[in-house]
């Protein structure tokens, strides 16, 4: 089965827990098989007369079996939770890691709320199906074979009747297989779209208020709700038809049992206890058959989840080389071109940025300043025409993940801080990570952040979406991170928008002090920064005219 093959590695990584869980569930199944036999024997003993001590013995045996079953079920449920949560998390983590290694273009085109819901729900459904089907299939095969062997040994007519009903179950399975899959796929897609629209209602609250478009946005929610409602109704119709056919077969099977069993008792071939055993085992076999019949619907649901996850995992990851660099002394671009769709943003850019320079990137809005930075960072490595090289080595041959982690630091104009302490956002390590407080204080003074750090402390938690921190404070934390990391390449996007004139002067003075060992790139409109840069890259959008000049030149 495709899904089981997909889950195999995750299951085997917890094989000890899995084996113990199966031993416990099998023990419970054997206890269930023994109960009808004990009950039948006990009824016959009561009807035909017996000693009181026999009644006591049966009661003790029955009580022990049930108490042991309760203990076994509790232990099995604990193992199930441990196994299920672990494998779901591991699959979730693998999918997230894969998505994070896809191109930025792919990520930008995704609805993150939809993607989150899809990955989480589908991962859970796949793994729960695998655990449950492995457990239940084993149990129900046991509950099918052993009782069937007992019934055939006692009465071959009932065994023959069972085979007829089993054939009906399998015929209905193949009739409903494809429609169930198709309907569940549609429902899941509609459900994900509705979840994304629901998320939108809260994530855009400020914009909705400013633009007064509450009714418009709610109208979008209404449309997605109608889609999920209609698909849910259609899915329920098909599911009801599926389960109704199952109930019809079950009813016919029970009628057959009563008829055959009644005749056998009438002819003195059965005792009441034997009929009770037959009835219990007959229903046990039918329940097992119904499981294999109904699991087809569950399988179709899980198959939809599996196909959506494997489609995501099948997306080609962004290229990443294997060469590790210890330092970067120059960045060169050779006739690079890049655009979004048919719109060219960077066209024919050739330049060299070397250590010892502060490079100002200037141009009108939309001219490609931020795009250029993204290309230099290797974020569109498979979509860029032309060549980008570090120390004359094409970045496609370099391990850019390692480079961005160790050799480049970037302060965004509107940074997204991670939910955690200021300390964590500086060094991306747990609170036990080493921090040089002397350097921290030095850079805090440059950015006029000393009072902020002293008041809040370095362990101040920046809340989700950083809504307990102002935009200027967030940008200062981002700039502080760049200064503290002290990497060979430093990149700033409009850094002075968060700084006063004194702090701006201190920052540019400090950057001039350290530029000998750095490649410093600054996107800016600020004349104070522009006049202190050693070179300017002026971008003009898709016209492709890129000038490299000195400050003051045109």
The ordered string of helix (H) and strand (E) elements is: HHHHHHHHHEEEHEEHEEHHHEHEHEHEE
Largest sheet: 6 strands, mixed
**Proportion in helices:** 55-70%
Strand content range: 5-15%
Question: Order of strands in the sheet with the most strands?
Answer: 6-9-10-3-11-12
Strand-pairing-aware structural class: alpha/beta
- Strand tally is 12
Roughly how many Å apart are the termini? 68 Å
Overall mean pLDDT: 82
Number of helices in the DSSP assignment: 17
The backbone outline, from C-alpha atoms, is elongated
- Stretches where pLDDT falls below 50 for ≥5 residues? none
Radius of gyration: 34 Å
In short:
It is built from 17 helices and 12 strands. It is of the alpha/beta class and 554 residues long. Helix 2 (15-47) packs antiparallel against helix 9 (272-313) and helix 5 runs antiparallel to helix 6 (156-203).
């Amino acid at each position: 089965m495709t899904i089981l093959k997909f889950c195999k590695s995750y299951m085997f990584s917890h094989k000890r827990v899995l084996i113990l869980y199966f031993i416990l569930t099998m023990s419970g199944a054997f206890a269930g098989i023994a109960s009808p036999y004990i009950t039948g024997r006990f009824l016959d003993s009561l009807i035909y007369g017996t000693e009181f001590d026999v009644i006591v013995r049966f009661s003790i045996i029955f009580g022990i079996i049930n108490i042991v079953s309760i203990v076994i079920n509790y232990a099995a449920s604990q193992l199930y939770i441990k196994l299920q949560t672990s494998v779901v998390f591991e699959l979730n983590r693998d999918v997230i890691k894969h998505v994070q290694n896809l191109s930025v273009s792919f990520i930008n085109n995704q609805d993150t709320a939809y993607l989150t819901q899809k990955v989480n729900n589908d991962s859970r459904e796949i793994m729960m199906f695998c655990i449950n089907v492995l457990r239940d299939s084993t149990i129900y095969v046991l509950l099918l074979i052993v009782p069937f062997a007992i019934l055939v040994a006692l009465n071959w007519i009932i065994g023959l009747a069972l085979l007829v009903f089993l054939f009906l179950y399998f015929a209905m399975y193949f009739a409903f297989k494809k429609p169930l899959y198709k309907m569940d796929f549609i429902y899941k897609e509609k459900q994900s779209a509705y979840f994304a629209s629901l998320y939108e209602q809260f994530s855009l609250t400020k914009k909705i208020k400013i633009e007064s478009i509450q009714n418009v946005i709610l109208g979008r929610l209404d449309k997605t709700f109608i889609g999920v409602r209609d698909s849910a109704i259609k899915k329920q119709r098909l599911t009801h038809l599926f389960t109704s056919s199952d109930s019809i077969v079950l009813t016919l099977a029970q009628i057959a049992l009563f008829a055959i069993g009644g005749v056998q008792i009438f002819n003195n071939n059965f005792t009441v206890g034997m009929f009770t055993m037959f009835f219990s085992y007959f229903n046990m076999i039918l329940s097992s058959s119904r499981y294999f019949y109904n699991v087809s619907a569950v399988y179709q649901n899980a198959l939809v989840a599996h196909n959506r996850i494997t489609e995501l995992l099948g997306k080609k990851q962004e290229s990443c080389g294997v060469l590790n660099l210890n330092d970067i002394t120059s960045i060169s671009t050779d006739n690079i071109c890049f655009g979004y769709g048919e719109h060219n943003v960077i066209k024919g850019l050739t330049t060299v940025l070397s250590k010892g320079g502060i490079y100002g990137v200037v141009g009108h809005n939309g001219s490609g300043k931020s795009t250029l930075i993204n290309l230099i960072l290797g974020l569109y490595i498979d979509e860029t025409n032309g060549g980008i090289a570090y120390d004359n080595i094409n970045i496609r041959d370099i391990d850019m993940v390692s480079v961005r982690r160790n050799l480049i630091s970037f302060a965004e104009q509107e940074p997204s801080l991670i939910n955690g302490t200021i300390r964590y956002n500086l060094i991306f390590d747990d609170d036990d990570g080493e921090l040089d407080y002397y350097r921290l204080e030095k850079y805090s003074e440059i950015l006029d952040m000393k009072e902020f750090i002293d008041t809040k402390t370095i362990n101040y938690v920046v809340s989700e979406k950083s809504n307990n921190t102002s935009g200027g404070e967030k940008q200062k934390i981002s700039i502080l991170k760049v200064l503290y990391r002290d990497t060979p390449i430093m990149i700033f996007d409009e850094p002075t928008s968060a700084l006063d004139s004194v702090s701006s002067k201190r920052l540019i003075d400090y950057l001039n002090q350290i530029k000998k060992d750095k490649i410093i790139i600054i996107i800016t409109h600020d004349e104070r920064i522009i006049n202190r840069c050693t070179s300017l890259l002026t971008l003009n959008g898709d016209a492709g005219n890129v000038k490299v000049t000195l400050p003051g030149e045109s």
